[in-house]
Amino acid sequence: MSSSAAAPAPAQRRRPLRGVVFDMDGTLTVPVIDFQAMYCEVLGGDAAYAAARAAGGGTVDILHFVESWEPDLQRRAYEVIARFEREGLDRLQIMPGASELCGFLDGKQIRRGLITRNVKEAVDLFHQRFGMTFVPALSREFRPYKPDPAPLLHICSTWNIPPHEVIMVGDSLKDDVVCGKRAGAFTCLLDETGRYDPHESLPEDVKPDFKVSSLTEVFRVLESHFDLIPAPAESTV
């Protein structure tokens, strides 16, 4: 399925939806971190980065990569990552359509949460700067992090909502979509540039239920495919 696909066939029933969980970097906020430069510095240069990409099938999960290193190397790597992230905070911008989408969800009494591999400092600044709060908002300090389903399952448990009544929205196949699929939630990929076209050619283990090119298109996905049901009272976070 995708946001640009035809309307659901009559036999296809609309599913109940009570919660939406968002990625932050590249989804709720405009991408500002030069990840390639960061990875090259962490790994020791262009050649090491290219080798890591080749070993990872074209991608590098830098956080999991670093976890296998000796403590001194880990400490240096995390310092580099933190520096790039701090520099990104100075340029933090909200993604077009994010405020309107959150207002829509609030009006429908649909829960909204956040899962990011960035640090809590970045999440706190995002909340303060743009005047919107996601609860729960899980940062890198929550382990294990995406693509493990644990953070999404934690949010569902906190909300007292089953995963199949939640949708995960993010811009990463390997982190956001995989996390959502492993948890048993619906998934929506934000692909602004058409990087992952065509949708039908994606492998099944990373194929999202929906693909959009902007957050504005998420409105149509939610209204066309789901019955938006006010969530039950939230349990203690």
Q: Which characteristics define this entry?
A:
237 residues, alpha/beta, Rossmann fold, 2 domains, six-stranded parallel beta sheet, two-stranded parallel sheet, 9 helices, 13% strand, globular, Haloacid dehalogenase-like hydrolase domain-containing protein, HAD-like_sf, HAD_sf
Write the topology of this structure.
Layout: E1 15-17, E2 19-22, H1 35-43, H2 46-55, H3 62-67, H4 71-89, H5 98-107, E3 111-115, H6 120-130, E4 137-138, H7 150-159, E5 166-170, H8 173-183, E6 186-190, E7 210-212, H9 216-225, E8 226-228
Helix pairs in contact: 1-2, 1-4
Describe this structure in words.
This protein is of the alpha/beta class. The chain folds into 2 domains: 15-31 and 93-228, Rossmann fold (3-Layer(aba) Sandwich), CATH 3.40.50; 35-89, no CATH class. It is 41% helix and 13% strand. The strands form 2 sheets. It has a 6-stranded parallel sheet with strand order 4-3-2-5-6-7, with helices on both faces. α1 (35-43) crosses α2. The protein is globular, with a radius of gyration of 18 Å. Residues 1-11 have low confidence and may be disordered. This is Haloacid dehalogenase-like hydrolase domain-containing protein. It holds the Pfam family Hydrolase.
How would you concisely characterize the structure shown here?
The protein has 237 residues and is of the alpha/beta class.
Number of domains: 2
Mean pLDDT: 89
Radius of gyration: 18 Å
**SSE class:** alpha/beta
At the fold tier of CATH, the topology name of the largest domain is: Rossmann fold
Strand composition percent = 5-15%
Strand element count: 8
Global outline:
globular
Instruction: Report the biggest beta sheet as strand number plus sense, adding barrel if it closes.
Output: 6 strands, parallel
Residue windows where pLDDT falls under 50 for at least 5 positions? 1-11
**DSSP helical segment count:** 9
| Name of the CATH first level of the largest domain | Alpha Beta
* String of helices and strands: EEHHHHHEHEHEHEEHE
The proportion of residues forming helix, as a percent range, comes to 40-55%
Task: Please give the order of strands in the largest beta sheet.
Answer: 4-3-2-5-6-7
CATH superfamily of the largest domain: HAD superfamily/HAD-like
CATH-defined architecture of the largest domain? 3-Layer(aba) Sandwich
Head-to-tail CA distance between termini:
33 Å
InterPro entries: HAD-like_sf, HAD-SF_hydro_IA, HAD_sf
Protein name: Haloacid dehalogenase-like hydrolase domain-containing protein
Organism: Eleusine coracana subsp. coracana
GO cellular component, one term: chloroplast
